[in-house]
Structure formats: structure tokens, C-alpha cells
Specification:
The chain is built from 10 helices and 4 strands; from the N terminus they run βαβαββαααααααα. It is α+β, with helices and mostly antiparallel strands. The N and C termini lie far apart (48 Å). Bound molecules: glutathione.
Length: 279
């Protein structure tokens, strides 16, 4: 029997309303660390180390990267849905931890030095969790460079190109052939690059790593980007191997009810998601 995902709550659409005591101070990477005075333990207070990581999440390929990593590492976490169709990504509380108004982000109550830390950008989160746990992100420099190469390849190439292919194929009000062909072809080229790489190794950087976790969600949605996995036999084998992992199954099984109810034809939703300019 597959274990259920290691999460405490998935239904709450209320942003930043943790069920556990919230840490007093969040130290972001850019902020100067502040030494918090140790508080005398009371019966009601929850020790920092026992607090789960908060995952600010929406069920998309970028969100899956992090739920997969948390599941793979067996880290306790709580899902905080951020309803991007309602504009919750622009709330001041969320912007304080994710200034790019995008999910995913995490808040780790037990960060470096035992103090809370928030992290945004899925690649940075994967690297942080890899360093924190010593898992799926090798310490050996040569092995780490290989993981970084494929992680950055995903962040700068596969993710953005697949995102645009999806947009122009499914959401653009006019079917612009040039844009559809441009991004569909680019995703096809990138799938080909992965397929060639995977012809000679089991995973992108040799061993299963955060680089594979970064890519798998985009391959899962291949059809939406106009791709046929049968064209890429090594990529298909890789995808099926990863999809069969119990942790990945648990991550993909997380349901956020509000997300299933989003109507992408709703003019309000479209204005929020597709009408963004500088604020
Ligand atoms: N580079 C960012 C991209 C994150 C991103 O694009 N997230 C999307 C969901 S997949 C989002 O938050 N969209 C909200 C919006 O478009 O307003 C990362 O990898 O974390």
C-alpha cells in the first residue's frame, strides 16, 4: 500500500494561516541574520525542530518539484495552497517570502543556525533541501556540477519553453501559428536533448537527483506541449521509472480542491494570470 503524502493539510485555501505556532522571525537569504533570544520552553510551545516545513504550493510542474523532493527526503511538511487564479500570489504576506509573486516557496522553521529561513525559486529550493538533507544533491564537485548543469538547463530552458508552448497552444485567445510552432518545436528539441542524454545513463546526471525532479513534471504534461513520448524512447523509460517511485506517486497524489475548480475561460482568472505588468 503506498503511504499517504507526508503532509499535514492540503485543503485550506487560506494563505499563511498555519495550524502550528508560526515562527516569530523569518530570515531571508538577503536579510541580515538576527540572533533570536532563546525562549523558555512552555508546555504549549512547539520545539522549532518539530515544526514542519511550509510549502507554498499550487499543483503545477514547478510545485511538483518541491513536493517530490520533500517526499523523497521524508521531511515533514505542510501544504499552504496559494490560489494563483485568485491572485493570492500578490498578497503582501506571500510577497515577503516570494518577491517574484510565483509559487513555489518554502518556509523552513529550522533553517541554518536553527533559525527560520524562507526560499523562493524552485531551483534554489531544491538545492537548499539537497544541502540540508545531503540527499539527491551530491557533495562531490564533479557529480554536483553535473546536477547543476541539468537543473539550470531545466530552469532556463525546458521550464520557460514548455510554459510558453502551453500558453500559446491552450490559453492564447488567438491561435498564433508562429508562436505555437516556435515553442512546440523548442520543447521538441529539448525533449530530444534529454532523450540523447538518457540513452547512455539512467538519470540526467547519472544518479537520481534534484535535476530529474525538476524535469519530470514537464515531461508529465508532454501532450499539452504537443509532444508524443513514443518519439523519445529513452525519455519515456526515464519518465516511467521516476513516475513509479513511491515518493513521486505521493507527491502527484496531493489534491488541492480549489485548483481543480479553476475555469481558465473565466475573464477574471485570465485577467489575473495573463494581464500582469509591473506593480
Ligand atoms: N522560476 C520560477 C517559476 C515559478 C512559476 O512560474 N510559477 C507559476 C506556477 S508554475 C506561478 O506561480 N504562476 C503565477 C502567475 O503566473 O501569476 C520557479 O521555478 O520557481
Amino acid at each position: 500500500m503506498p503511504r499517504s503524502p507526508r503532509i499535514r493539510a492540503v485543503k485550506s485555501a487560506k494563505l499563511l494561516t498555519p495550524k502550528v505556532a508560526r515562527p516569530k522571525r523569518v530570515t531571508s537569504n538577503s536579510a541580515k541574520p538576527t540572533r533570536a533570544k532563546p525562549k523558555p520552553a512552555t508546555r504549549k510551545s512547539v520545539p522549532q525542530s518539530k515544526l514542519p516545513i511550509e510549502l507554498y504550493y499550487w499543483p503545477t510542474p514547478n510545485g511538483w518539484k518541491i513536493s517530490i523532493m520533500l517526499e523523497e527526503c521524508g521531511l515533514p511538511y505542510v501544504v499552504r495552497p496559494v490560489d494563483i487564479s485568485k491572485g493570492e500570489q500578490f498578497s503582501p504576506q506571500f510577497l515577503a517570502i516570494s518577491p517574484n509573486d510565483r509559487v513555489p516557496a518554502i518556509l523552513d522553521p529550522n533553517g541554518p543556525g536553527g533559525r527560520p529561513i524562507s526560499v523562493f525559486e524552485s531551483g534554489a529550493i531544491l538545492q537548499y533541501l539537497g544541502r540540508k538533507t545531503g540527499q539527491f544533491y551530491p557533495r562531490d564537485e564533479r557529480a554536483r556540477v553535473a546536477v547543476d548543469e541539468w537543473l539550470f538547463w531545466q530552469m532556463g530552458g525546458l521550464g520557460p519553453m514548455a510554459g510558453q508552448a502551453n500558453h500559446f497552444r491552450r490559453y492564447a485567445p488567438e491561435k498564433i501559428a508562429y508562436a505555437i510552432d516556435r515553442y512546440t518545436n523548442e520543447v521538441n528539441r529539448l525533449f530530444g536533448v534529454m532523450n540523447t542524454r538518457l540513452a547512455t545513463r539512467e538519470f540526467l546526471a547519472g544518479r537520481y537527483s534534484i535535476a530529474d525532479m525538476a524535469c519530470v513534471g514537464w515531461v508529465r504534461l508532454a501532450e499539452r506541449m504537443g509532444q508524443e513520448l513514443a518519439q523519445f524512447p529513452h525519455l519515456k523509460r526515464w519518465f516511467e521509472t521516476i513516475r513509479a517511485r513511491p515518493a513521486v506517486k505521493r507527491a502527484f497524489a496531493i489534491r488541492v480542491e480549489a485548483a481543480s475548480a479553476v475555469d481558465m475561460k473565466d475573464p477574471n482568472v485570465r485577467a489575473i494570470l495573463f494581464g500582469q505588468t509591473a506593480r
